[in-house]
Amino acid sequence: MFDVIRSKRYWLALLLVGAIIGIVSFALIGIRNSVKVKQIPVALVNEDKGTLSNKIESKLRKKFNGKDSKIKWVSPQKDGFNDQKYYGAFIIRSGFSKELQQQNESLKAQIISQKLTTLQKKEELPDSAKSQLLQAKFVTQKPVHPAQIKISINQGMNAQISQLLSQALPQIANALSSRISAQQQSVLSKNKINLSAKSWDLVSTPISVSTHESNKIEKNTVNGTAPMLLVALAWFSALIPSLILWREHTKRSASKFLNATTITSQLITGLVASILSATVGFLFVNVCFNLTIPNPINFIGLMSISIFVFYLIITCVLDWLGFAFYPLLLVVWFLASSVMSYAPEALDPLYRKGIYSWVPMRFSMQTLTNTLYFHNGSSTTMSSLLVLLIIGFVAAILMYSSGYLKHYLFTVSPHRKINN
Q1: 381 three-class SS
Q2: Do 7 and 112 reside in the same domain of the chain?
Q3: How far is 237 from 333, CA to CA, in rounded Å?
Q4: For residue 1, how far is the Cα from the chain centroid?
Q5: Are residues 345 and 71 in contact, defined by beta-carbon separation less than 8 angstroms?
Q6: For 244-303, what is each residue's pLDDT tens digit?
Q7: Would residue 125 count as lying in a domain?
Q8: Per the structure, how many domains does the chain have?
């Protein structure tokens, strides 16, 4: 009855269950529970450089200067949106200070005009004030416009963050507008001034806020989650062929240690399988499921590279460690998919540096994100692609070295010890 409990396998099984529970908790609960949106880079652009706009810029920088602030103001850069330097931009448009100054001048003129007109009707207006009345009426007739603030959202970088900024940045601009409006209304109330509906609209909204989206997330891209799902498709497109081809090459090998010819065969067959998988994947996601893919050739090429690099990683693990460590690859994917669901700025440093920074899947997702949403080109494509190719090259070298080193470790070295 107690034989099972006394066996080592029983306790090893319990240990394995505990490890699995720990990993799943770490990935599912730990990551999600620690996600906090803060220090999201947003460009603060002052195109006006007037007195009022400079004051507003200074106040904004002070307000969002804390470490826990959701927004981190950064300086604008050339091609900053395409190169994914920031998730959005808060732009104080040229003429901002001038428009607000004209609003204040028009407000003062209306106060003067109404007061002097009242005195004129009572025939109590001094002759010296008549020119002042004419001047005030002339100022009130000049067209006055709201000051302009433009919000730009770099939507393709991350769907969740872009949605958050689409609400947060206009709220900041509207809060500025409301503050200026309250000041103007206070002045009008003290002077008991009545305004026309048009003038009142301007007092109610002294700042006009417009929102523009760059690198838009196209329709039929699963609400911006398409890159993540495509990486999953690429990973599992590599996971199954790598196991099948590894088993075939192992069976056909004359020795239990794979030689260079066998490894080369693994590379060639894996490359063919990767290109075929990428092509079939394109046909399914684009033709069958109507996923929007702007450039099919780029897409198939990037998917082929991603699948092939994943194939090399998986096959390298199998060549070195064997099928017993195959489940480890599922754990790696599980951890990677957990962190790739979020913007890196939202991750706790433990998860960002400990998982996100080194998993190869994120570089694949970067290239796929760019080909789907960044049609003007992004420098991050080449850098991510280069990292993927380096990872694949290292995996291929390790594959070639596996046969020789394992042969030396398990055959040559023990044989020398016996002879000695």
Answers
A1: helix
A2: no
A3: 13
A4: 57
A5: no
A6: 999 998 888 766 678 888 899 999 999 999 999 999 999 999 988 888 898 999 999 999
A7: yes
A8: 3
